[in-house]
């Protein structure tokens, strides 16, 4: 008999494993219940990409997030200079 390597129950693992043991049913998993059709289409699109294309998509999203951060920083600085963000005095 081999020793138990993971004697403690990890949160969420048993539910995740049970979802694969159950026979395939027509009802979608719990996590898909809140998804809209656009979200599902996006998942299908991302799932069909090759590894290289997926990495390119991720890099594009990282660049977009960086550009948005720069733009937000400029707008916050602008608001500071215009005293838009100043708290009202009591």
Automatic annotation (TrEMBL):
**One GO cellular component from the entry?**
DRM complex
Q: Which GO terms describe its biological process?
A: regulation of DNA-templated transcription
Q: Which InterPro entries match?
A: DREAM_LIN52
What family does this chain come from, according to its entry? Answer: Belongs to the lin-52 family.
What is this protein called in UniProt? Protein lin-52 homolog
């Amino acid at each position: 008999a081999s020793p138990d390597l993971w004697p403690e129950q990890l949160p969420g693992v048993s539910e995740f494993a049970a979802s694969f043991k159950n026979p395939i049913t027509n009802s979608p998993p719990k996590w898909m219940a809140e998804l809209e059709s656009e979200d599902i289409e996006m998942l299908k699109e991302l799932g069909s990409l090759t590894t290289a294309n997926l990495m390119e998509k991720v890099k594009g999203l990282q660049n977009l997030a960086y550009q948005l951060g720069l733009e937000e920083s400029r707008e916050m600085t602008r608001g500071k200079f215009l005293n838009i963000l100043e708290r009202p005095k009591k």
